[in-house]
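Field guide to reading this record: the first block holds the primary sequence, the second block holds the structure written as discrete tokens, and the final block holds curator observations. Each block starts with its own label. This record concerns Phosphatidylinositol glycan anchor biosynthesis class H, catalogued under organism Homo sapiens.

BLOCK 1 — SEQUENCE
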Amino acid sequence: MSCREFCLSCPRLSLRSLTAVTCTVWLAAYGLFTLCENSMILSAAIFITLLGLLGYLHFVKIDQETLLIIDSLGIQMTSSYASGKESTTFIEMGKVKDIVINEAIYMSAKPRLDCLIEVYRSCQEILAHQKATSTSP
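BLOCK 2 — STRUCTURE
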């Protein structure tokens, strides 16, 4: 039996960027408040900021991604979000024909291209091993 696990951890949420976004939203709301003199604008800004942060932490900000491939069982992909939520998908090996890595490559891409190549090659080796053992008598 052959297996590999790949784990990618992302940097934690930056307090500096969180503070910058919050201050920008609140300063814009204060500017609108001074023009309109409507206190609902300030309340809405606080509410929108809190909802936006919670949504970002729960649905967007991924802290860790894991790929576990076991030649006789299948492939398990797990995403752990900043809010603590985890999303796991399992695909039986019999349903796997090939593996495609769907990532955009930028100059500062995370994970780096060399890491993606290593993951791809390792997955292809395990798939080839699984196909060889399943076709032999």
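BLOCK 3 — OBSERVATIONS
The helical segments are 15-36, 40-60, 113-135.
The mean pLDDT is 87.
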